[in-house]
């Protein structure tokens, strides 16, 4: 039997899960919002970033990971996050980075273009970035606007891993169809990490696994 391309990530062992729990058990604090590359903090520790099209559930996922209900602002208005938000994680051993939502946004065109350029500059030039987590809505799969960011990550040589959000909003059969679509799309992206993570911020599904993945990056 041929193995599926891009299988779901396996359940981490107890030691890995504990490492993830400990990393996120401490206080996570907001450091700064960055609107230009010159404002980035020193590249002196491992960092991971979260990218996703507007309204994919990125803020909710970050809040679920860190156990803080309002650490990252959640909003029903697409495009609310217009800067790169840095958080100190795990006794300041990691940076957790919330990137501006890409794609449709209820903001002036000039504003949208400015922070899309900032997003691309960051992804292309941050030496301590170990992995980008690209969030994909489990109800919709990879859209054209997602493909643009995945291609940018390829050309920037930034390893990225797809995280499906809102899995509690879809039935098992529908989720399988989306997984098949995602797998087909990712085969064209050499920077894609070969395992998928399925999460639900509301139900907590996949959250310990994602914590473990982040804690075990080197």
Automatic annotation (TrEMBL):
Residue ranges of every copy of the EngB-type G domain listed in the record: 44-218
Alphabetical list of Pfam families matching this protein: MMR_HSR1 (PF01926)
Keywords, sorted A to Z: Cell cycle, Cell division, GTP-binding, Magnesium, Metal-binding, Nucleotide-binding, Septation
GO molecular function: GTP binding; metal ion binding
GO CC aspect terms: cytosol
CDD domains named among the record's database cross-references: YihA_EngB
Cofactor names: Mg(2+)
Record flagged with keyword Membrane: no
UniProt similarity note: Belongs to the TRAFAC class TrmE-Era-EngA-EngB-Septin-like GTPase superfamily. EngB GTPase family.
Reported function: Necessary for normal cell division and for the maintenance of normal septation.
Name listed for the protein in its UniProt record: Probable GTP-binding protein EngB
Organism this protein belongs to: Aliiruegeria haliotis
